[in-house]
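Annotated sample (chain length 181).
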Amino acid sequence: MRTALLALLTLLGCAPPTPAAVLDAAVDAAPAPGVDAARGGGVAPSVLLATGARAWQPLPSDGSGRAEVVFGPQGGYHIFGRVRMEGLAPDVTLLFRVTSPDGTRVLTDDRDRIRRVLGRGLLQAADGAYESTSGELVILQIGSPMDVAGQRWRMEVRVMPADQSPTVTDAREFTIVDDEP
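Output written by the structure step:
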């Protein structure tokens, strides 16, 4: 029966379904030519922090960036964080932290850590850097968007490599906005 199905798919010009084992193996796929994933390509380790649910939205270093507060389906509020890393192997834990610019008010929980690997939360760009595949939920401990909207905040991301390389960070000031009606 399986052979007949594969033959039919071939005749119709369709590729046979990919077994789960092959999909899982893609996580361990070789990096782009000339990039050594174990050393992150020989580039000095760095990370660039951004926001955006569906697409990369930069958070400029001058503080003019904006991030929208979102009411999640489970009843809490969040913003989105994204990363672009160079010089790091694609197996990292991310810690996003949102504070007031002076650091006296903290909106996030330092226990909220996210592990990302190539093919599961990270993709490799044409230049060999690794990027978030989508916006990461940065959970805010607030009661209402009115607690934070229109105010300046500071978001930091710490990238902690699984291979025990030094932690790399980036931080940006931005304004939280509430575009919901």
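Annotation: Residues 2-11 form the longest helix (10 residues).
Annotation: The domain at 41-177 is CATH 2.60.40.2550 (Immunoglobulin-like).
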